[in-house]
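pls design
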């Protein structure tokens, strides 16, 4: 597999994951948009804003701006990178209950549905463009990740794909209405 084809395939898979998230988020009724799924859990609005903030942070890093702050001690990040990251990639699942870094935690009521979905779409477009640009100009570019220290471009796209699906799983699944015959 050529490097260009590899990143293209990864980005296509990523785009599919984001599309699935957006479709499910767009189907959430307005009455449930700001309703958390439980105590200490996020609402669909917060799940959406969290993803948008994450893409914004990675784009900023890719363009030479401020990077996300590292979490834990150096040896913890190495352990997480060596033990957790391969498991995440092998299973396409993130562990649950890991606290999001402060920079990507959403506010209590981050915004209305159409605004946040448009913001997510814009941030994802910027992210994908920044990845393509970095792949063409700096293919060995590394991006800072709070828990895993640094990620290659391919690792970042893979992780963002898993991340989008992880948060999609927390959105309500609406059952289609079926009228009963009486």
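designed seq:
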């Amino acid at each position: 597999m050529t490097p260009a084809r590899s990143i293209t395939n990864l980005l296509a898979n990523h785009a599919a994951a984001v599309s699935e998230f957006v479709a499910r988020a767009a189907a959430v009724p307005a009455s449930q948009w700001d309703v958390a799924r439980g105590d200490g859990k996020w609402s669909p609005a917060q799940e959406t804003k969290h993803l948008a903030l994450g893409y914004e942070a990675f784009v900023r890093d890719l363009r030479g701006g401020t990077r996300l702050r590292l979490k834990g001690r150096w040896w913890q990040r190495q352990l997480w990178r060596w033990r957790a990251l391969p498991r995440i990639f092998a299973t396409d699942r993130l562990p649950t209950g890991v606290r999001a870094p402060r920079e990507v935690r959403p506010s209590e009521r981050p915004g209305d549905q159409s605004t946040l979905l448009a913001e997510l779409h814009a941030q994802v477009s910027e992210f994908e463009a920044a990845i393509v640009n970095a792949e063409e100009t700096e293919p060995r570019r590394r991006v800072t990740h709070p828990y895993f220290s640094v990620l290659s471009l391919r690792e970042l796209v893979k992780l963002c794909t898993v991340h989008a699906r992880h948060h999609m799983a927390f959105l309500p699944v609406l059952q289609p209405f079926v009228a009963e015959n009486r």
